[in-house]
Design a protein that fits this description.
Layout (H helix, E strand, L loop, with lengths): L2 H23 L2 H53 L6 H82 L4 H13 L5 E5 L2 E2 L8 H9 L4 E2 L6 E3 L7
Helix pairs in contact: 1-3, 2-3
């Protein structure tokens, strides 16, 4: 294998590492999204409970105010009874008093039911707050782990890129340009090995004459199917 082919093969090995590393890096956004979505859902549950609690408190205050107003109305009617002279007026006041009592009783029932709901919420909230805190702690730990792992892989990418840049200087300018053009259009792989008589990129079978030339390793072979540069693997015996 001549020097140019040796350089291209070395670049092939680095490019394979880059493809693998970049593929691995691509998983991080989805992993973060999964963690953040779970955290968002748990926080939303807690926010919903807090909002419900605030609404319940407002409703309780309203009911308490209604009860107070109805009690005051009842007392007012009661105070007017001694002043009434006519039976029909007396009966009308008694009717108003009964109505006010019934309304107050209904609102007191509403208040009791609401207080039971408040008590239930108060019992459920600590457990939910603890669950949310647990999810937050877990999310923080996992996101930190993702960040550290991603940083390590990006450092590896940077290291491979430096090796690759150094190797590229060994190629003639025209070959560098050709190599990068193929690499860009073929998902990061410009050079592929010949595997069982076929292109290692598109798996197209190669003519026997081309395979013989590739095996001698004295000139560059190009796949007619995908345009990648083909090299007979140095470690292959056939």
């Amino acid at each position: 294998m001549n020097e140019e082919l040796q350089t291209l093969w070395a670049l092939h090995e680095l490019d394979e590492r880059l493809v693998a590393l970049n593929g691995s890096l691509a998983r991080f956004p989805a992993q973060r999204q999964t963690v953040e979505r779970r955290l968002k859902d748990e926080r939303a549950r807690l926010d919903t409970m807090k909002h419900r609690g605030a609404e319940t408190l407002l409703e309780r205050k309203k009911i308490e105010k209604d009860i107070e107003s109805l009690a005051a109305e009842e007392r007012k009617f009661q105070s007017q009874l001694p002043l009434v002279k006519k039976n029909e007026e007396y009966s009308a006041l008694l009717h108003e008093i009964t109505g006010a009592k019934q309304k107050r009783s209904d609102r007191e029932t509403d208040l009791l039911m609401l207080m039971e709901d408040e008590e239930r919420q108060a019992g459920e909230r600590p457990a939910l707050e603890k669950a949310v805190a647990g999810v937050e702690a877990e999310a923080k730990e996992r996101l930190a782990a993702f960040a550290a792992e991603e940083a390590r892989e990006r450092d590896q990418v940077a290291g491979v890129e430096r090796e690759r840049a150094a190797l590229m200087t060994r190629l003639p300018a025209a070959m560098r340009s050709r190599y990068e053009r193929i690499r860009t259009s073929r998902e990061g792989r410009a050079v592929v090995p010949i595997v069982k008589g076929a292109c290692g990129g598109c798996y197209r079978g190669q003519p026997p004459q081309m395979l013989q030339e590739a095996r001698r390793g004295d000139r560059l072979i190009v796949c007619d199917g995908c345009g990648r540069l083909l090299i007979w693997p140095p470690e292959s015996s056939g």
